[in-house]
Amino acid sequence: MKTRKLGTLEVGAIGLGCMGMSEFYGKGDDAESIRVIHRALELGVTLLDTADMYGPHTNEVLVGKAIADRRDQVVLATKFGMVRGPNPRDRTINGKPDYVRSACDASLKRLGVDHIDLYYQHRVDPNTPIEDTVGAMAELVKAGKVRFIGLSEANVETLRRATKVHPIAALQTEYSLWTRDPEDEILAACRELGIGFVAYSPLGRGFLTGQIQRFDDLAADDFRRYSPRFQGENFAKNLELVQRVTELAQRKGCTPGQLALAWVMAQGDDIVPIPGTKRLAYLEENLAAEAIALTAQDLAAIAEVAPKGVAAGARYPVQTMASVNR
Predict the structure, then answer these.
(1) Which is catalytic among the residues 54, 120, 175, 282?
(2) Residue 221's pLDDT band (boundaries 50, 70, 90)?
(3) According to the model, what pLDDT value does residue 211 have?
(4) Whole-angstrom distance, CA of residue 199 vs CA of residue 266
């Protein structure tokens, strides 16, 4: 696999999102998930993405177990700042310096490592100045606990303020054919500031693969059931989009998911998508997208069937949308 750079941090051109191995997308299988991680590393993936709130906590343990005997092959990314409550959908955001330090120590212990390669603030805390949060993250770099720091779902003003405290290697934000928000300001600002861009949910939470044809295809505990894009009329309209993307993919000789990933990667060599999967077949399908070269004609055809703003429905419920781009 070719590599790309997040600031000065070099990673494989496609990373692996590990969230769904432990929660949110129905029941997982730890043994199978570990096989997926090991196969990803064999195929050239280096960036593994997790967070303390996935599980909660259990995903870091799983990833740590998977990489225990191959730590040197991995650029390990995790996140702090989203604090889970007793109800799975209850969460608060904490960017206070003391919490940053304690969260890092807890993640290191769960992961079973002595340092984190890329440590993100998962969501910006509106009650804590970003300078204070990033200042605490910078102290972790000085202490050798963290190599590079990143932010997730931060807006341009927050990025500019953060970079005055410490270099930011990466911004992680949702980006795909049906979520184009970063094109408004974020991507340009990242390039100006020398910040790499990590695209999460580059397959539209799996919808752009064409594998989800009915709402009932989603498990009873699948969090996508609460997503506006997966509900009612929005689902039907978005399914029409997927059908159009599938037709283009068939003409290109690839799957719709591969076309969607290739499109994200074609938006700049400073963009690293991190599609998530817990199945070997989907992993190998996703990684094969790196070899797909989209021509100007391909990109024009995609733009015609999937213009900016094409998705029906917001990407999160109202209360969750309040915490993004902040």
Answers:
(1) 54
(2) confident
(3) 87
(4) 12
State residue 224 phi and psi, 5-degree precision.
-65, -20
Contacts for 194 with CB less than 8 Å, ≥ 6 apart: 7, 167
What order do you get walking across the sheet with 146-152 strand by strand? 16-17, 47-49, 75-80, 116-121, 146-152, 170-174, 196-200, 271-273
Task: Supply the mean pLDDT for the chain.
Answer: 95
Percent of the chain with pLDDT over 90: 87
DSSP string, 258-289: HHHHHHHHHT-TTEEE--B-SSHHHHHHHHGG
The single-letter code of the amino acid at 179 is T
Whole-number Å distance between alpha carbons of 246 and 254? 9
Residue pLDDT, tens place only, 168-182: 999 999 999 999 999
Is 120 marked active-site? no
Beta bridge partners of 47: 75
Picking from 181, 213, 224, 193, the residue whose alpha carbon sits closest to that of residue 325 is 181
What pTM did the predictor assign? 0.96
Taking each helix axis from N to C end, the angle separating 280-287 and 256-266, rounded to the nearest 10 degrees, works out to 40
**Whole-number Å distance between alpha carbons of 152 and 285:** 26
- Find the helix packing angle between 130-142 and 97-111, rounded to 10°: 40
Q: Which amino acid is at 277?
A: T
